[in-house]
Amino acid sequence: MSRSVRQVHLAAHFPGVNNTTVWTDPAAGSQIDFSSFEHFARTAERGLFDYVFLAEGLRLREHNGRVHELDVLGRPNTLAILAALAGITEHVGLVGTLTTTFNEPYELARQLATLDHLSGGRAGWNAVTSSDAFHGANFRRGGFLDHADRYERAREFAALAKDLWDSWPADGVRADAATGEFLGDGVPSRVRHQGPQFDVDALFDVPRSPQGRPVIVQAGDSADGRRFGAEHAEVIFSLHTGFDDARAFYDDVKGQLPAWGRTEDSLKILPAVTFAIGDTPAEATERSREIALAQVRPEIAIRYLEGVWNRDLSQYDPDGPLPDIEPDTGAATAQGWANRHAAVGKRIGALREVSETEGLSIRDTVIRLTANHTFVGTPGHIAAEIDRYVQERATDGFTVVGHVTPHGLDEFAEKVVPLLQERGSYRESYEDGATLRDLLGLPAPHPAVVAAR
């Protein structure tokens, strides 16, 4: 008996707030004009993607007192963009990155539930912790939470948001046809919550949304992050793209689901992937190199290292070896990283290992770590690789990241998607009225479960 074909799930990451975007490309457009978001969302919908995914930055990046070039056009508000996209799309899901550190559960739950109603059940929330002082300087509390504390806040935040969303009955508020009075079984339950992070006594003011509650996406990779994902996430946006690494991550996180009363199909793992397409393997390899050199120009390579070393490295040659000086891991840093000593040591160790093993220059080392494209080849090769990952349970699909705004998805949708359809592992149309939860093949929202601590 033949094994059933697993369906590939694809998300589309809007480029811009990341180091993969190439602004020097003649085709590059704005990261704030609505036309860019409209083009990207329509391309994703034409390619039958599950959802579009927007990152959000809460502060302009600075380097030696200058705003980084990726931020020169600003960083618009994610929820406003998604609400606008809800009006010009019909099927594709709408997922935004919103922090648990610098928001409050009631207000964010309210905004997301509203978006879910406006979009007909297509809303999702990428919950991130944003612990660093660099972002915290924009907020009254300042500073940053320790790594463990930020995940404790995130777990309590997500649990409270779900309680608020679930406080309404499935059929919402109903009124008596004769008297107009509200019927008792339609009124939301009062949510009382007292915990280390939040003290809330509320009647949630947005009825249950079309898909029960917005889909929760998450991207943490530490032990605490994986635990949060197993407890609360319905999609994980991971960085594990090598086949063996991806499968190990898949097995680890999905193996934690039973402790939270969950099944394998209640969580989708969609690693972020980049790509370079060519008519031949050689052409694709050449194009990958061209894109990487545009992504990591000489000055960008030095800036990257300066962000790690926290020193002025302008005297170093991008085509020469890594700096032989020690980093400055003092508290006053441009990035404001929490636990900076450990983070810097790990990152520099990885850089030196790659550089020394292969004799790479500064620029090529940074390219290897930040611009090494996941899938490079012909459309047929890329489609086959995507399918292999999914069929062999290394992933449930991928989050596709292009390198040009807003056209980075165009070639993938036109050339790779049809080949996935030919393989029988990708949808050929949307079902009318499908929610984001339906597109992802997720079950109804799972209730909260207290796992063994």
TrEMBL record:
Sequence similarity: Belongs to the NtaA/SnaA/DszA monooxygenase family.
Residues covered by the Luciferase-like domain: 27-393
Xref: Pfam families: Bac_luciferase
Recorded GO MF terms: monooxygenase activity
Name the UniProt record assigns to this protein: NtaA/DmoA family FMN-dependent monooxygenase
Domain of life the protein comes from: Bacteria
UniProt key word Plastid: no
Record flagged with keyword Oxidoreductase: yes
